[in-house]
TrEMBL record:
<dbReference type="GO" id="GO:0003677">
    <property type="term" value="F:DNA binding"/>
</dbReference>
<dbReference type="InterPro" id="IPR051011">
    <property type="entry name" value="Metal_resp_trans_reg"/>
</dbReference>
<protein>
    <submittedName>
        <fullName>Winged helix-turn-helix transcriptional regulator</fullName>
    </submittedName>
</protein>
<dbReference type="InterPro" id="IPR001845">
    <property type="entry name" value="HTH_ArsR_DNA-bd_dom"/>
</dbReference>
<dbReference type="GO" id="GO:0003700">
    <property type="term" value="F:DNA-binding transcription factor activity"/>
</dbReference>
<dbReference type="InterPro" id="IPR036388">
    <property type="entry name" value="WH-like_DNA-bd_sf"/>
</dbReference>
<dbReference type="InterPro" id="IPR011991">
    <property type="entry name" value="ArsR-like_HTH"/>
</dbReference>
<feature type="domain" description="HTH arsR-type">
    <location>
        <begin position="9"/>
        <end position="104"/>
    </location>
</feature>
<keyword id="KW-0804">Transcription</keyword>
<keyword id="KW-0238">DNA-binding</keyword>
<dbReference type="Pfam" id="PF12840">
    <property type="entry name" value="HTH_20"/>
</dbReference>
<dbReference type="InterPro" id="IPR036390">
    <property type="entry name" value="WH_DNA-bd_sf"/>
</dbReference>
<keyword id="KW-0805">Transcription regulation</keyword>
């Protein structure tokens, strides 16, 4: 007899994927990630202009994405750019929006 697929003895292996999904579970953060997939790297000012929301709000969302390991920063002179740090996220977002929507 085989054990059922739903055993709760190793729920810790679900912590990291659940945290990634939690970090993506806001429309602004999903939009930021999709924008980074298209543009590859971008600074807060550009995101703020595109999203039409305050810079402080964009920064708060970026902090959540950084905390989850979804985005990281690259310094270019005085400018700080954000890039995707976890390529698994691209597959998740493509599954939600379709590949064409994420690359155009």
């Amino acid at each position: 007899m085989t054990l059922p697929d739903f055993t709760g003895n190793d729920l810790q292996k679900f912590d990291e994927p659940a945290n990634l999904l939690k970090a993506l579970s806001h429309p602004v953060r999903l939009c930021i990630v999709r924008g980074l997939m298209r543009k590859k790297k971008c600074n807060v000012s550009y995101m703020q202009e595109c999203l039409g929301i305050p810079q402080s709000t964009v920064s708060q969302h970026l902090q959540k994405l950084r905390g989850a390991g979804i985005v990281s920063t690259e310094r270019s002179g005085l400018e700080m750019n954000y890039v995707l740090a976890d390529r698994r996220i691209e597959e998740i977002v493509k599954a939600l929006f379709g590949e064409e929507e994420c690359e155009s």
